[in-house]
Amino acid sequence: MIEVTSLTKRYGSTLAVDDLSFTIHDGKVTGFLGPNGSGKSTSMRLMLGLDHGEGTTLYDGQRIEQLDSVSRVVGAHLDAKYFHPKRTARNHLRMLAQEADLPSAPVDEVIQMMGLSSVADKAPGGFSLGMGQRLGLAGALLAAPRTLMLDEPANGLDPQSIHWLRDFLKDYAAQGNSVFVSSHLLSEMELMADHVVVIAKGRLVADASMADIVAKSRRNDVLVRTEVADRDRLSGELSGKGFAVQPEGAGGIAVTGATTEEVGRAAHALGVALLELTARVASLEDAFLELTDSDQQYKVGGDR
To answer: Whole-angstrom Cα distance, residue 186 to residue 209?
Structure first.
């Protein structure tokens, strides 16, 4: 278990991370989300002791500087180009293995696992972003750590590799490890993460299971369509029961707070024929935009 308590980081007058606290549990993939400039990368660097700031991060009760072997406890990949451009990929991994006091065998294993065999003896300075990501992931996995901490690991990967990465991380967590991963690919995160931590402007916005995050979205509703002449009667009935009702298209209404069964029973009691009755479930993207819209630092199109 990783306990993050009161992380705070200032750059001059700018408060990049603001008293941030949360817990990462074993056996789960925890997604770390936030708009651009929200402080995700800075938070991860603070957690790893790569930046100086306030607050603490404990790995099973120990600070990172107290660990006998950091790489066996947490494998981190924060930068797709974090390697010497002229040292071969194999030698880069051998250097990391030596630091972790590992035999050479895991180097060949992770090279094969990450599809790097054909470029293992080439200098990574000319690698594409995707191949750089693969090398970074190989380094993070080298010591089979209890925790993986990954910042945007899918950037530059092709669809097949993204699919593989998702399944791999879910399986890695299922073995009792913890995975902490940031990504702007919300559709992928929705398929991968069990738990979500959302920050905006350096502050905690949400810390809950994926199911709870999505369930609280206002985009969860019921679409019901009737004959146009019956819409107002049904709208009045549902509003009287305390549900939020909004017109949607010809003869349609969107009902928030009700189940399809409740809407169906109300229509039956009025003798209203239903042409459509559909429960619409919010996506992680819907929930994320609701949680962070007012805290977007860099809005496309500027302020309106």
So the answer is: 15
| Tokens matching residue 298 | 């860099």
Contact 288, 199 (CB under 8 A): no
Q: Where are the domains of the chain?
A: 2-215, 221-280
The pair of structure tokens assigned to 79 is: 């930068």
- Residue by residue, DSSP assigns 88-139 as -HHHHHHHHHHHTT--SHHHHHHHHHTT-GGGTTS-GGG--HHHHHHHHHHH
CATH of 2-215, one of 3.40.50.300, 3.40.462.20, 3.30.1360.30, 1.25.40.10: 3.40.50.300
Q: Any idea which residue has 């990783």 for tokens?
A: 2
- The arithmetic mean of pLDDT across residues 96-118, rounded, is 84
Say how many Å lie between the first and final Cα of the chain, rounded: 43
pLDDT in tens, 122-140: 988 888 888 888 888 999 9
Name the fold adopted by 221-280: Alpha-Beta Plaits (3.30.70)
pLDDT (mean) for 234-251: 93
Helices (H) and strands (E) in the chain, counts: 11, 13
Say what percent of the chain tops pLDDT 90.
63
245-248 long-range contacts (CB < 8 A, ≥24 apart) are: 248/223
Angstrom distance (rounded) from CA 186 to CA 302: 22
